[in-house]
Every structure is written in structure tokens, then in C-alpha cells.
Amino acid sequence: MGTTQLESVQEPKYWHLKTVLSEALDSDFAVGEILPNERDLAARFGVARATLRQALEQLELEGRLQRRRGVGTTVAPPRVGVAVSTDQREWADGVGDEAWQPLDSTMAKAPAPVAAMLGTDPAEAVHVVRRIRDTQGQAVAAELLYVPASSVPDLSAIEAPSGPVRARSVLRELHRLGLQGQDRSVELGSARADDAKELDRLPGAPVLVVTTRYFTVDGTAAVSVATYRADTCRLTFGDSGALEISHDEQPERQAS
User: Fold this and answer.
1) In whole angstroms, what is the distance from residue 113 CA to residue 167 CA?
2) What are residue 244's phi and psi, to 5 degrees?
3) What is the mean pLDDT of residues 80-101?
4) Residue 231 pLDDT more than 90?
5) What distance in Å separates the CA atoms of residue 146 and residue 154, rounded to the nearest whole number?
6) Least confident of 82-91, 101-110, 142-151
7) In the predicted model, is pLDDT for residue 249 greater than 50?
8) Backbone dihedral angles phi then psi of residue 6, each to the nearest 5 degrees
9) Cα 224–chain centre separation
10) CB of 92 closer than 8 Å to CB of 255
11) Contact, 179 vs 157, CB < 8 A?
12) Partners of 183 in beta bridges
């Protein structure tokens, strides 16, 4: 990795440095290789460490680098293509190598913005289903699915108070509702401590947050807040409105 003169560059220094580093990643480093520490890199390129961090953060956001606990900054592998289906059939199935795996379900208050979408009292406890999604052995997304008790009234007969069994029961009852539609939003966020741990990220790492509201004829039945690794996933929308994740030039479309 060579040096470069940045003083005369008109664009922001960190942006030019990002370009230089990106070229070096292609020519001088292998996937999984650990980069030199920040002090050495900053000295090599003649920039302040703050400038270097900005460039590294941008490369991480673009999926070129990964910051790993106890390891350091490594060259990231190519992004994994993961088709994201919003078909509620997955709630009933939950099988397959790339299916959402239910981990737990508890009763808790929903965050105020979620309670507003659900139309419930902020003090009201709702079912909170926690799921994780793996693809090719790598955790790529974590989800919290908020379900009001009114959406799954028959669940009172289920004895399991929490855990995967309870989670599957909530999902099965939700599946039986026969959803009529959904809307969703996508925004860039920072990994919370719980999500970071499940996704093998550092707290504060860039993530993509997909919020989906599911409807029945009677109103909102559930709200999903799914957190995706920004360094692993790229979100696109097909003509049908279905949400997809792919690193391919022409991703396959998923019907909603």
C-alpha cells in the first residue's frame, strides 16, 4: 500500500482517501486479511486519524471492510445475496437454511413509535417475537416482531410463557389471520447493543432498519422492525413492491 499526497485535492480528504484505500484493498489485500492499525495507516497516508476513521467508516458502510470484536478491521468478503420475502407463509413454516429462526417471545411494552403504528396504548404489553436470519452460516438480520394480544386471542391456551415454542405459536396464530396488505420503510441506523451481539457487529456499526406494518381488514395486526447488516446486504424493491436483498447486478424479484 503506497503513500499519496492529499493536500491539493479539492474533494474532502476522507473521500479521496477512501478511494485510495479501496484501490489498495483490491490490489494488496485478500479477503479476511487484517489491516494495519489506525496509527500506522494515518502515518502512511499523511492524514489525521479522524480523517482516516471517516474513510474507514465509509468503506465499512459500503461493505468493503468489517470491524470485528477482538480482531480489528478486516477486508470483507463479497456481499451475500439474501432474498427477503414479506410473504406471511414464512411465519407458519420457519424452515430452511435461509428462513427466519424464532428465538424467543415475551410480553413487553412496545417502543412508543411502534405502539403508535399498532394503535395500542404505550403502557399495554404486546407479544414481542425475536427472530434471527442466517445465510450461508452468517447472521445477516435480527428482527423484533410486535404483535398485540388482540391479534392472536387464541394464544391464551398456549402454556409456554416464553422461548422458541411460544414464538412459533404466536407466528402460527398470526398466520391464520389472513393479512390484507403491508407497508414498509427502510432507513440507515446504528446497531444497538443487542443487535450488534446477534449480528457479530460492534455497537454503533451501520445497519439497515426495515420497518414493516402488516394489516388486516380490522387494522394493523403486527409491526416488524428488522435490522440488517449494512456491510452484508443491499436492499432493492422489485416491480411488485417486494423487498429484496442482493449483490447481483440483476437480482431476482420476489413476489409480495
Assistant:
1) 23
2) -130, 160
3) 56
4) no
5) 17
6) 82-91
7) no
8) -110, -10
9) 12
10) no
11) no
12) 213
Per residue, the 3-state secondary structure of 146-203, as one string, reads: EECHHHCHHHHHCCCCCHHHHHHHHHHHHHCCCCCEEEEEEEEEECCHHHHHHCCCCC
Query: pLDDT band at residue 187, thresholds of 50, 70 and 90?
Result: confident
Instruction: Tell me if 64 sits within 8 A of 127, measured CB to CB.
Output: no
**Is residue 215's pLDDT more than 50?**
yes
To which residue does cell 456499526 refer?
Answer: 205
Of 154, 152, 150, 130, whose CA–CA distance to 142 is shortest? 130
Most confident of 113-122, 133-142, 203-212, 230-239: 113-122
**Grid cell at residue 22:** 479501496
Q: What are phi and psi of 211, to 5 degrees?
A: -105, 125
DSSP for the chain reads: ------TT-SS-HHHHHHHHHHHHHHHH--TTPBPPPHHHHHHHHT--HHHHHHHHHHHHHTTSEEEETTTEEEEPPPPPP------THHHHH--STTSEEEEEEEEEEPPHHHHHHHT--TTSEEEEEEEEEEETTEEEEEEEEEE-GGG-GGGGG----SHHHHHHHHHHHHHTT---EEEEEEEEEE--HHHHHHTT--TT-EEEEEEEEEEETTEEEEEEEEEEETTT--EEE-TTS-EEE--SSSPPP---
Give the C-alpha separation, 85 to 78, whole Å.
22
Reply yes or no on whether the pLDDT at 188 is more than 50.
yes
| Short-list 84, 26, 81, 56, CA closest to 202 | 56
Give tens-digit pLDDT for 15-72: 888 888 888 888 888 888 888 888 988 888 888 999 998 888 888 877 788 877 677 8
Mean pLDDT for the chain?
A: 78
